[in-house]
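Quick log. Single chain, no ligands specified.
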Amino acid sequence: MMYNAIDLYGIIAEASNIRGGKNPEYTKEDFFKIYPQFAKQNEAGEDLIPDVVITAYVKLAHACISYNRYNDMWNTCMSLFIAHFLTLYLQTLSSAEDSVKKIINAGLAKGVQTSKSAGDLSVSYDFSIIANDFEGWGTYKQTAFGQQFLTLAKVVAKGGMVVW
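-> predicted structure:
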């Protein structure tokens, strides 16, 4: 059987498990409908998370999550992805008025707390769980949003295939 180039391209594309195409519109307003807590404002009436940050993560989600792969789960996955990264952003939040030490501490990786004491205050953290997992899913395991996203991503994922 002979295939023309267009037919062959379609067969290879399907076998590769690569999904192309454009995503439907998804905006920060769509995100806030699902997770209104991220639209919170401070005492001065300013957005807790700057618009430029939210917009950047919406764009990142569009670049990373293909509607043609996730189909009916796409809106949920977009929301979970953005919520995960905004949670990590909030963990690193500090103000320009903060001391250099506080700004640096806000940006340090957060380990999983493994123990704590009250007398003479002692807290232990395990960073290996996160550091060793960058070969896998990395920081997605650090937030409940990321864990939910991972669960759905694993449902739709399958390994790529090679056609010889």
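The mean pLDDT is 77.
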